[in-house]
Amino acid sequence: MKSVFDDIKMASETKENKVQLIGFGRRFIAMIVDGLIVVFVSFILALLVGMVDVFFGQGVLPWNLIIVLIMLVFSIIYFTGNWVRTSGQTLGKLLLSIKIVNVDGSPLTTGKLFLRFFGYILSGIVASLGFFWVAVDKKCRGWHDIIAKTYVIDLSDDIPVDGNVSFVKTDTGKSWVWLVLWVILALGAPAVLFSGLWFLGPIVSNFLNGLR
Questions:
Q1: Using CA atoms, how far apart are residues 87 and 145, in angstroms rounded to an integer?
Q2: Are the beta carbons of 93 and 100 closer than 8 angstroms?
Q3: Residue 1 domain-assigned?
Q4: What is the residue range of 70's domain?
Q5: pLDDT tens across 12-38, in order?
Q6: How many domains does the chain have?
Q7: Mean pLDDT of all residues in 96-105
Q8: Is the pLDDT reported for residue 67 higher than 90?
């Protein structure tokens, strides 16, 4: 015969865990923070490589190409390295108190995080449409999340391994706001990159020429 305590126990076992899915707003801000870090550090590294080339080489490296290659390599190290080290966070995500998790609650693997970074590239090269997908997807997923089978959730939440979970979407807001932010992202990210190469490339080159 069941007791009241048995009913309470069964209810607690079947109770769904509420998890906050992070929408476009906070993820957009975290992306801006991470993007600024990647651009700034990449140009510093390019400057250091250039100084080494001037003092120990012939000083004829193509600076714009070097900056692009360094930015790509540092992006891989920055994103995947931080995701692995902190179990799903970058500095931008840390500031916004959000994190990446597996859809089934299992621990993130290095291979999956590299796959997610590949998804980042795919999300970005098509006018950043893969990032904007977060605003329209029912579970706030970008293309990179869909590819790697991940969610971005609040730092205080966790996905239970038994899958007994109820999702709550955050940063829903007005769709036109996210559309405006997507346009800024789609146009702004390439603009920042190319303007950086256009202006900072010659600055780096002229600075290094002065060291010769």
A1: 15
A2: yes
A3: no
A4: 17-211
A5: 445 568 899 999 889 988 988 998 899
A6: 1
A7: 94
A8: no
